[in-house]
Amino acid sequence: MTETTEVPGKPKPKSSWVNLVVDFGPLLVFFLAYRHFAPTDDNNMVGTVGAVIKGTVAFMVATVVALAVSKWRLGHISPMLWLTTVLILGFGALTVIFRNPFYVQIKPTAVYLLFSVVLFIGLFKGKPMLKYLLQSAFEGLNDEGWMKLSRNWAWFFLVLAVLNTALVYTVSFDTWMQAKLWGFTVLSFLFTFSQLPMVLKHGMGEEAKAEFVETPPTD
User: Fold this and answer.
1) How far apart are alpha carbons 30 and 51 in whole angstroms?
2) Which of 10, 12, 105, 205 is deepest in the core (most CB within 10 A)?
3) Hey, how many other C-beta atoms are within 10 angstroms of the C-beta on 120?
4) How far is it, in rounded angstroms, from Cα 162 to Cα 165?
5) Interaxial angle between packed helices 102-124 and 45-69, expressed in degrees from 0 to 180 and rounded to the nearest 10
6) What's the whole-model pTM score?
7) What are phi and psi of 39, to 5 degrees?
8) DSSP alpha helices (H): ranges in 16-78?
9) DSSP structural state of residue 171
10) Residue 173 Cα distances to 114, 177, 193, angstroms
């Protein structure tokens, strides 16, 4: 048996597919669990709430697993992932305790607003907070690039917060969940890749292109 030795203090290599699993896996688990337990009768509110509760518990468990996977495969857990996990567990617990889907629906708004505020405060102080939250090594990306990336994500998070809140109060839970899983995910991917020309312009090396698929959490 060949034994591999890790160099102390040397970060594990990036793995784009792991980033995707960590970021979007728990949300997919929530969706699948809810669909599995959801009643066929749309008017069965008791059954719907029960499905939401079971889906939320599965979501919370999957989030903790994703945290462990991030540590195992990537060698670190970013501050952004820590904060997202805390909010997911907090709002998930409220959903289960009060048996009210509202808390799991409004959780994304809280996540988006938190990160938007943190990034805007960083911009006000002249610090690119996205760099510290993600702890991602976009090789060669200069300070100006990080500042622009932080600014753009701050505004995008704010837009997502407003959009999620509007959906919570205007559409059914099922419609909201479909929009959250598919619509917000697609929007996040499109926005992420729309930033690629800017970060390349500001010094991000060719080797870092593959890492750019690590998007800030959209949960």
Assistant:
1) 10
2) 105
3) 17
4) 5
5) 40
6) 0.82
7) -70, 155
8) 16-37, 45-69
9) S
10) 23, 6, 29
Rounded to whole angstroms, the Cα distance separating 178 from 148 reads 31
Name the token pair of 37.
């337990």
**Helices 79-98/45-69 angle, 10° precision:** 160
Q: Residue 84: CB partners within 8 Å, gap ≥ 6?
A: 63, 111, 217, 219
Tokens of residue 219, six digits: 């949960």
**In this predicted model, what pLDDT tens digit does every residue of 147-181 receive, in sequence order?**
999 999 999 999 999 999 999 999 999 999 999 98
Token duo for residue 24: 């979007």
Confidence of residue 70 (pLDDT cuts 50, 70, 90): confident
